[in-house]
Design goal:
The chain is α/β, with parallel strands linked by helices and 284 residues long. It contains 12 helices and 12 strands. The strands form 2 sheets. The chain has a 7-stranded parallel β-sheet with strand order 8-7-6-11-9-12-10. The protein has a 5-stranded mixed β-sheet with strand order 1-4-3-5-2. The protein is elongated.
Length: 284
C-alpha cells in the first residue's frame, strides 16, 4: 500500500536529499552504503527502476499521485512519497520540481573499467569533462549512437549528478560506465595504456597538425576502438594524445575551429560506429 506523507515543513529529515544536501553530501564517500543520487521526471525515474536501482523516497506534487506518478508508486509501494501542492513544494524547496516528481535512489556499487569494457566494441573515454550538461549530453549520444560503454578520468564530473542525469534523459542507467581507478597525475600516461591492455585501439579527438579526418575508413573499421574526448576549452592533454594510436579531427567550415565537446562526441560516435560484428573479446 502506498505510503503518502503530506509535506508541511523542511524540518523532516527525510527531505534533506531533495532540499538541503549538496551533490558531495549525497555521494557520501565516508558512508558509501548511505550514498544517494536524485532522478527527476517520470521517464528518467522509470529508467532507473528498469535498471534495478533502489528507490529510497519520492517527492511529488499531489496532482501526480493519481497521474504520472501513479505507475511509479505502484511499482514501489513500500517507498515513502512526500507530497504537497505545487505552490507548497515550490515555496519549501525554493524552486519548482522538474515535471513535478523527484526520486532519491541509492547509489549503485561502482564498476571497474574491466567490467564495463568486457565485450565492448566502442568505448567513449572522457578526460576532465566537468560540465554536467556536457556529460549528460555525451551519455545520451553514446547510448543512442552505438557506443557500448563510457569510461571517465578521475577529474570528470559525476554522471549521477542531478543535472547530468536529467540531461542524459536517463541513459546513464542504460549504458555501462566507470571511473578509471587512477590518480589525476597517473591518468595521461596510464589511461591510454589501460585501454590498450583491454584490447582497444585508441583515437584522440584533437586539433593537431597531424590529425586525420574523422571519416578515415581505416579507423572506423577497427574492431575495437576507444574514442578519447577532452575537457572543455583545453581538450585532451598532450601526453594523452601522444599515447593514442590515432588523432582525429572533424573537418570544419566557415572559419569555425571546433565544436562543443558534446556536439563533437555525437559526430564521432556516429562516424566511428562499428558496422560489422566484433570478434570475440580477448581473455584478460
Amino acid at each position: 500500500m502506498a505510503h503518502i506523507i503530506p509535506v508541511t515543513s523542511l524540518d523532516e529529515p527525510a527531505l534533506a536529499p531533495f532540499v538541503r544536501l549538496t551533490e558531495a553530501q549525497l555521494k557520501s564517500r565516508r558512508q558509501p552504503d548511505r550514498a544517494l543520487f536524485i532522478a527527476e521526471s517520470p521517464k528518467v525515474i522509470a529508467l532507473a527502476l528498469d535498471a534495478g536501482l533502489v528507490p529510497r523516497s519520492f517527492l511529488m506534487e499531489e496532482r501526480h499521485l493519481t497521474g504520472q506518478g501513479a505507475p511509479l508508486i505502484a511499482r514501489c509501494p513500500e517507498v515513502p512519497v512526500y507530497t504537497g501542492s505545487r505552490e507548497t513544494l515550490s515555496r519549501l524547496t525554493g524552486y519548482p520540481l522538474t515535471r513535478g516528481i523527484l526520486c532519491a535512489f541509492a547509489r549503485p556499487a561502482p564498476r571497474t573499467a574491466e567490467q564495463v569494457c568486457a565485450g565492448a566494441a566502442r568505448v567513449a573515454v572522457l578526460e576532465g569533462i566537468v560540465d554536467t550538461t556536457n556529460v549528460g549530453a555525451i551519455f545520451r549520444s553514446a547510448a543512442g549512437l552505438h557506443v557500448d560503454a563510457v569510461l571517465l578520468s578521475p577529474t570528470c564530473c559525476d554522471p549521477l549528478n542531478r543535472r547530468a542525469v536529467r540531461v542524459s534523459m536517463g541513459t546513464v542507467f542504460q549504458i555501462p560506465w566507470a571511473f578509471v581507478d587512477l590518480s589525476a597525475d597517473q591518468w595521461p600516461t596510464r589511461g591510454p595504456a589501460l585501454l590498450h591492455r583491454l584490447g582497444f585501439a585508441t583515437a584522440a579527438m584533437a586539433l593537431t597538425e597531424n590529425a586525420k579526418p574523422i571519416d578515415d575508413p581505416a579507423v572506423a573499421a577497427l574492431p575495437r576502438l576507444a574514442i578519447f574526448l577532452g575537457t572543455e576549452g583545453d581538450g585532451l592533454a598532450k601526453e594523452t594524445i601522444a599515447r593514442c594510436d590515432h588523432t582525429l579531427a572533424i573537418p570544419m567550415s566557415h572559419g569555425v575551429d571546433s565544436l562543443n565537446v558534446a556536439a563533437a562526441s555525437a559526430v564521432a560516435f556516429w562516424q566511428l560506429r562499428l558496422t560489422t560484428p566484433p570478434k570475440e573479446a580477448p581473455v584478460l
